[in-house]
Amino acid sequence: MKFSDLLDIVPVPGAIPASQLLSDLSLITSASLDLTDVPLASSDLVELTAGYDTHRPRTVTAVVLTSNEEERVGMCLDALAEDVDQCLLIDSESTDGTVEQALHIRSDARVLTAPWADDFSRQRNLAFTAVDDGWLCHVDADEVLDPAHRGRLRRALSVLDYLLADADFVVSPTIADLGGPVYTNTQRAVRADGPFRFRGRVHEHPYAPDGRAPSRVQVDVRFDHSGYLPKVIEERGKRALYTRLNSLARAEEPGNPKWAFYQVRDGLELLSASEEEVRAAFALLAAHAADAVPAGPPGYETERVVDSWSLLCELALGLGDAEAVRKYAALLKVADRTVEATYYRMLVESSGLLGRLSALVDEITSVAADEEPANRHLMARLFELQSTLALASGRYETVLPAYRESVRRGAGQSVTEDFGSLTRILAELTVRSD
Question: Structure pTM?
Answer without folding.
Answer: 0.84
